[in-house]
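Crash report, auto-generated. Payload:
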Amino acid sequence: MSTSTTTNENITAKTVFIKMALSAWDTYNERVNKLINSLSDEQLIAETAPGRNSGIYLFGHLIAVSDGLFPILGFGERLYPELDKIFVVNPDRSGLAMPSINELKEYWKKVNAKLTDHILQLPDDEWFTRHNNVSEADFANEPHRNKLNIIINRTNHTSYHLGQLVYLAKKQTKED
Amino acid sequence: MSTSTTTNENITAKTVFIKMALSAWDTYNERVNKLINSLSDEQLIAETAPGRNSGIYLFGHLIAVSDGLFPILGFGERLYPELDKIFVVNPDRSGLAMPSINELKEYWKKVNAKLTDHILQLPDDEWFTRHNNVSEADFANEPHRNKLNIIINRTNHTSYHLGQLVYLAKKQTKED
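Recovered output after restart:
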């Protein structure tokens, strides 16, 4: 392999990075989606383990965190800012009223559909620009704190909670 | 911003992208490390939830999967290939003898130390080459299936099981 790097090779490299990060994001969201749709309301309301977060709380938490991506990525206003208080700021069993499971499923779909629209429209170069949770000064020193990095981190956040949500399902395989 | 992309900008983009993926990998491994070291042997032997995988099984599973990275990434031979049968091929409670917790902690350290050595030595361009679980023909069509992508996917795998392993600890925060 030549050590010189042509512009074309690098444009491809950028496109490839974006695909790597977005593929993982899509994969884990789809796994959550498939799991949630396979669970009964009774299973979703249950605790993932004794004394731990309920399925509905973790589902609401994932929706709220994904909804929070709109302002962070410069994609506009959140759809459901009211979810933060219930599912992020406060713990499960806070006494705050939660939306119903059907409402949450609707929110999940709408947040993901709108996010996907924005994600597909974002020009490649924009992924490597600053997101709105990092200052210009910090970004100058830490250019990896860009928009695509948020997607990588949020994918790990989703997979973390997916590992817990699978405990709501009947045990099937060793990976559950 | 100019739409033309200079070679220098792209070399930086590559370096930045590698940093993004490796930072997330390090973060999640460090979180596992911290958790494992905070747990008693009794906690580690327990099930993460009723009827689900034990802590020791999931810990062994993470070690085996990380150890499997050596051949996949062209980093040489595995250190502990015998772990696969116990922690990957077979489920928990298979009746196969497991290493002790202290042995596993030692393996975890050694696998991570050797992996880190190889990771730090790999030239930037090599991260975007084919890994050994994908054929040359498939890689030609799917260039995102490169070595760095393995790191991104394995980080998500680690965070998935970390979400389960935290159930071994005493409940402290809503994120547990």
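Post-recovery validation: The mean pLDDT of chain B is 92.
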